[in-house]
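Subject: for your reference before the review

Hello V.,

The reviewers asked for a structural picture of the protein, and I figured it would be easier to keep everything in one thread rather than splitting it across files. Below is the amino acid sequence we used in the manuscript, unchanged from the supplementary table.
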Amino acid sequence: MYSICIADDEKYVLKSIAQRISSSGMELEVVGMAGNGLEALELYDREQPDIFFVDINMPVVNGLDFIERIRKKDPDVRTRFIIISGYDDFAYMKKAIQLGVINYIKKPILQQEFTDMLRDVCRQLDEEREKEEKKEEKKKICISYLGKKKKRKEKKKRWSDSVFSLKQHLK
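And here is what came back from the structure prediction:
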């Protein structure tokens, strides 16, 4: 299950996106919603969701500034940011790309486009989790191997010490 947060200053958009997510049939959970950029920052700190839908034009802190602040605070952030916008402005899109936004959805949101985008994001997250699991498994194998190697070395040393002690005793 992946967690999702939504930030938009229009309540009907918040509800619409949450409803689309719940009716998608995917294992997704909306864990929080924010009505402005400052609330979105607090929500991010509290939830650190897998996916965060962000409106560009929000009061207090706009969507792009919100993402920029998150990226500055945590350069290795794993959250996937998706812009929701009523604007078809190249400057916004360019800045969104620079901030590592994975998708830019224009309002009004089309259901098929939204569902396809969600599937794609979930596939990316699945692949990332699978890579992490393989990495952890390799790490466990290495630790196990090193632990066994250390035990063999200690056993060899004890045996060597015993032989030395026996030789000393026999002299």
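For the response letter, the relevant points are probably these. The mean pLDDT is 86. The first strand starts at residue 2 and ends at 7.

Happy to draft the paragraph if you're swamped.

O.
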